[in-house]
Design brief:
Blueprint lengths: L10 H6 L15 H4 L2 H5 L5 H10 L2 H6 L11 H5 L6 H14 L5 H26 L7 H12 L3 H10 L1
Bound molecules: iron/sulfur cluster (2 copies).
The site of one iron/sulfur cluster has 13 residues, from helix 3, helix 6 and helix 7.
C-alpha cells in the first residue's frame, strides 16, 4: 500500500488542466462507465472507474506504468453515458500522453497500438465477411468451436473456455 508521501496529490490537477482531462474532478464514482465498457466485459482488470479513482488518489506511477491504460478501443460508450460528462475516453488519451512524456513507454509503442487497432478492425471485418454466408454456424456453441479451431490460443478462446466452466 502506498504511503501518503508516495502519492502525488497535485497530479489530478495536472491531468484536469489538459485538454480532454477537464471533467476528471467531477467524477462521483458511479461506475456507469465500467458497466457499459466492451473491454471491461472481456477483461476484468480493465476498469475505468478504478483508473479514475487511482488518478484522483494521486497514484501516478502505478497508473502511468500500467498496461490497462492501453486496453481501451476508443468506442466512446463511457463518454456518452457518463452523468458527469467526465469524458473518460479523452482522459485516457491524456494519461497515455503522460506515460510517453514521462518515459514509461517508448514512442514506438504508440505506433504498435495504432497497428493493433487497425488489425482488430481488419479481423472483425474478415470475420463478418467470412461468416456472412456460413450457413453451417447456427449457434453460439458452433461459433465458439469454429473460432477455437481457427484461432488457437487467443485470449478470446480462453474466455470461451472460462465461460464453459
Ligand atoms: S460514469 Fe462518469 S461519473 Fe460515473 S464513474 Fe464513470 S467517469 Fe465517474
Ligand atoms: S471508450 Fe474505452 S473505456 Fe470507454 S467504453 Fe469504450 S473501450 Fe471502454
Amino acid at each position: 500500500m502506498k504511503t501518503q508521501k508516495e502519492l502525488d496529490e497535485r497530479w489530478k490537477f495536472q491531468v484536469a488542466s489538459r485538454p480532454g482531462g477537464e471533467g476528471l474532478l467531477a467524477c462521483f464514482a458511479c461506475g456507469v462507465c465500467t458497466a457499459g465498457c466492451p473491454v471491461s466485459e472481456v477483461e476484468e482488470r480493465f476498469n475505468p472507474r478504478r483508473i479514475i479513482h487511482q488518478v484522483l488518489m494521486g497514484n501516478r506511477e502505478h497508473v502511468l506504468r500500467s498496461k490497462e491504460i492501453w486496453m481501451c478501443i476508443g468506442c466512446y460508450t463511457c463518454t456518452a453515458h457518463c452523468p458527469q460528462d467526465v469524458e473518460f475516453t479523452n482522459l485516457l488519451k491524456v494519461l497515455r500522453t503522460m506515460a510517453v512524456e514521462e518515459g514509461h513507454v517508448d514512442k514506438k509503442w504508440l505506433k504498435l497500438i495504432d497497428e493493433i487497432d487497425r488489425r482488430t478492425q481488419n479481423l472483425r471485418r474478415d470475420l463478418v465477411e467470412y461468416l456472412w454466408n456460413e450457413e453451417t454456424l447456427q449457434s453460439r456453441e458452433e461459433f465458439d468451436s469454429w473460432y477455437k479451431e481457427e484461432t488457437g490460443k487467443l485470449s478470446w478462446t480462453r474466455k470461451v473456455k472460462d465461460n464453459a466452466e
